[in-house]
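Notes from hallway chat w/ T.B., transcribed later so I don't forget. T.B. wanted the structure written out for a chain they're using in a teaching module, and asked if we could keep both sequence and structure tokens in one place. Agreed to drop them here.
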Amino acid sequence: MDKNIQSIYGLLGKNISYSFSKTYFTQKFKDLHLENCSYLNFDLQEINQLQAVLNKNKNLKGLNVTIPYKQDIIPYLDSISDEAKHVGAVNTVKIVEGKLAGYNTDIFGFETSLKLVCNETNGLALILGTGGASKAVHFVLQKLGYDVIFISRKAKGNNILSYANLTKDSITSAKLIVNCTPLGTFPKVDEFPNIPYQFLHRNQLLFDLVYNPPLTQFLIKGQKKGTLIKNGYDMLTFQAEKSWALWNS
């Protein structure tokens, strides 16, 4: 590490060499002439390796948190924002004098990005996946007045259907379908959520939290049926800027 580096930020996740964050913040530091700032990838096989990261990087000021640690990191935090506590997922950590404070900027990122392409404030929304990012999406959609159904590999209760149980009516009646799974992410670009795409129509929006590649198979299949589509790049940018604001507040 360069001895002139005074502030370290980074991304915490697993198998994150593809990630946008390091490139984004490295360029941001360059644009702002912040020569004393550095952004690192902390690619951990287990969340219990976090303490070693903290011990080794005494100038660590903030972390972005991605799959699969948005929920696993919570027990390691000294405090957590009300929003992050409500959704049960953290994607941003601010570190001050060794104390870790958790936030969820996915909420801001998703809501701001969604409003770029959709002014709907109600209707049925399907959320594909039940991981940490899906919780932020659910929070936003509930706030906007949507009825929300999660789609997962296993059905559970009234608001989590299995992919196998998806019907024509389930698909056609949805105004919005949000992919919160990593399916389709580079390099596995041929993967996609297993929904009945033949029932999609032009009065729907498909939103994919995946940003690499920009056009996933999920979005391509929707585009072929005339749906409006949106990838996760703007959401990622908005949440990154919100993280930066929190780290510097």
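Follow-up for T.B.: The two ends are 26 Å apart (CA to CA). Might be a good example for the class.
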